[in-house]
Write a structure and sequence with these properties.
Radius of gyration: 30 Å
Shape: elongated
Number of helices: 6
Helix content: 10-25%
Strand order of the largest sheet: 10-11-13-12
Distance between the termini: 68 Å
Largest sheet: 4 strands, antiparallel
């Protein structure tokens, strides 16, 4: 009976202390607080701050499990992944991209014959290359032949030497294919009998390859004018002539920065609306004033539950007199 009373008293004493009180929180340096999530040394004691908001939270021992997801918490176990110390998240290093399952970092550009998983890796090195799905290597696409490290467009003309190709201009003979081919920065015309130069966005064209020389693999020739393919948009820097057709960024895509989450505005052709999504926890997500539709597009949230939308679309008279009503 006496033992039970002593045990009960001990449990009562322990319950008077919080979990944080039972941890060793004394410190002289920040390194001594690294055992806690968000820990740092302040006034000789470890304090813990929430990621992002930096609000004071109870200290908890750090979970040292290695993350196997790109976009997950640090430390990072994947090759070519690095920790963003400010966000404490794993991201692929520069010149690398996340795999489809986000468990690996893949080279962003892969040269011909290099190992690949998606065609975009090959096309960033050579516009006319694709990733062979079974061989998992970069090869030239149909009607193109590898020559001196790049894909050259074939003409519908046989040859044994360059002399046979001289009459059509801007072409050479590829002995392996025994066909004339366009030199670098030229592609065949619509009937593959001569070589033509590339043209830019909105210019007259006869074949998609003519547009792809300037605008990249995401472009095509539609109604005899160069434009971006479906699910692509024209990315234009300061120089309008530098437009390149980039793939649209879908909702939920991997990202490192909000700039990675540009999204095509579906109701206006060839315009980019980059204010609808932001990068949140390694994924492109709709901003607070927007909602996702069909798990693809972020559209303005016009529901009654969105007070900001109601304020922005309130009648002018209500906005003018609202302060008076507020103080009455």
């Amino acid at each position: 009976m006496q033992f039970n009373l002593i045990l009960l008293l001990a449990l009562c004493l322990l319950s008077a202390y919080s979990a944080e009180d039972l941890l060793e929180l004394g410190c002289t340096t920040n390194a001594q607080c690294e055992q806690f999530e968000g820990g740092q040394c302040h006034d000789s004691s470890c304090v813990c701050l929430a990621r992002g908001s930096k609000e004071r939270i109870p200290c908890q021992p750090k979970d040292n499990k290695l993350s196997n997801i790109i976009g997950g918490p640090c430390p990072c176990s994947q090759p070519h992944a690095e920790c963003d110390t400010q966000m404490q998240q794993c991201f692929c290093a520069d010149n690398y991209m996340a795999s489809a399952d986000r468990r690996r970092c893949l080279p962003l550009q892969v040269a011909l014959n290099g190992v690949c998983e998606v065609s975009r890796q090959c096309q960033l090195a050579d516009t006319f290359a694709v990733c062979h799905m079974s061989q998992k290597r970069c090869i030239c696409r149909e009607h193109f032949e590898q020559h001196q490290g790049s894909c050259r467009a074939l003409l519908d003309l046989g040859c044994n030497n360059n002399t046979h190709c001289e009459p059509v201009g801007a072409s050479i003979c590829l002995p392996q294919a025994m066909k004339c081919a366009c030199i670098r920065d030229y592609v065949p015309n619509h009937n593959m009998t001569s070589c033509v130069s590339g043209v830019g966005l909105g210019s007259n064209c006869t074949t998609p390859a003519q547009c792809q020389l300037k605008l990249g693999a995401g472009s095509t020739c539609r109604d005899n004018r160069c434009s971006c393919r479906i699910k692509h948009y024209p990315k234009i820097d300061q120089d309008p002539n530098s437009a390149v057709c980039e793939p649209q960024v879908p909702y939920g895509a991997y990202c490192r920065r909000t700039e990675d989450c540009q999204q095509h505005q579906p109701d206006v052709e060839n315009r980019v609306h980059d204010a609808r999504m932001h990068c949140f926890k390694g994924e492109c997500q709709c901003r607070p004033d927007f909602r996702v539709v069909d798990n693809q597009h972020c559209v303005l949230d016009t529901s009654a539950a969105n007070p900001r939308y109601k304020l922005l679309h309130a009648p002018l008279s209500m906005l003018i007199f609202w302060p008076i009503y507020y103080y009455v």
